[in-house]
Write a structure and sequence with these properties.
seven-stranded mixed sheet, binds flavin mononucleotide
Length: 195
């Protein structure tokens, strides 16, 4: 089973999530590649594709939108999962879940209608103070907003394991330890990974 994990990342956090997903999928699936969307000319050689993009200005990165547009006829014939990486968990607490749910709905609207997703998730990424205009930072923190590495590796692992369970013939994958804290990155058994 050849699986592609493709990513569009401006500052690196989405790339690291994609590499982590690919590495985890590679534990149970034979052939997993991780590449930037810009490096991928065709997906016809894969049986499943996982595509991730950072969210900037409430939208997928342009390279990810282009990826879906140019490869839509091929993606329409495949099992496709998608994830976005934003800053929902940086918001004041009452808005976090609602923010992620709204994003999920809106971001699906960017996809060509012929591409039917098996699943779509919005994860939080890394949101640092210098990514917000200086005049808004103090107000943002006063109302409960926060900055930092907000990636929830346990949630990412759980979603990855759902994908692996669907792709692996013959049942769910072997239980794997749930990641906590730091991104463990690619291990020795990691997939062929693009940067
Ligand atoms: C210029 C800019 C615009 C952003 N716009 C949004 C946004 O509209 N919605 C959101 O949830 N996160 C937004 N973010 C937060 C990013 O999605 C978050 O930092 C993410 O981890 C970036 O992924 P990357 O490191 O792969 O580029 C924005 C970040 C930057 C720098």
């Amino acid at each position: 089973m050849a699986v592609l994990v493709a990513f569009a990342s401006e500052l690196g956090s989405t790339r690291e999530i994609a590499q982590h997903i690919a590495s985890r999928l590679a534990v149970v699936l034979l052939d997993v590649e991780c590449r930037s969307v810009e490096e991928v000319d065709s997906v016809s050689g894969y049986e499943a594709v996982v595509v991730g993009s950072a969210i900037h200005n409430q939208a997928w990165l342009p390279s990810a939108v282009l990826f879906f547009r140019r490869l839509a006829p091929e993606l329409a014939k495949q099992a496709v999962w998608a994830f976005n990486v934003g800053m929902a968990d940086a918001l004041p607490k009452p808005f976090r879940k609602r923010g992620a749910a709204l994003q999920q709905k809106r971001l699906r609207g960017f996809l060509p209608p012929e591409v039917q997703l098996q699943g779509h998730r919005v994860f939080s990424g890394v949101y640092q103070a210098d990514q917000m205009p200086a005049q808004l930072r103090v107000f943002f923190q006063l109302v409960g907003g926060r900055f930092g590495d907000l990636r929830n590796w346990a949630a990412i692992d759980a979603w990855t394991d759902q994908i692996a369970a669907q792709l692996k013939p013959g049942g769910p994958p072997k239980p794997m330890p749930t990641t906590s804290g730091e991104n463990p990155g690619l291990g020795r058994s990691g997939p062929r990974a693009g940067q």
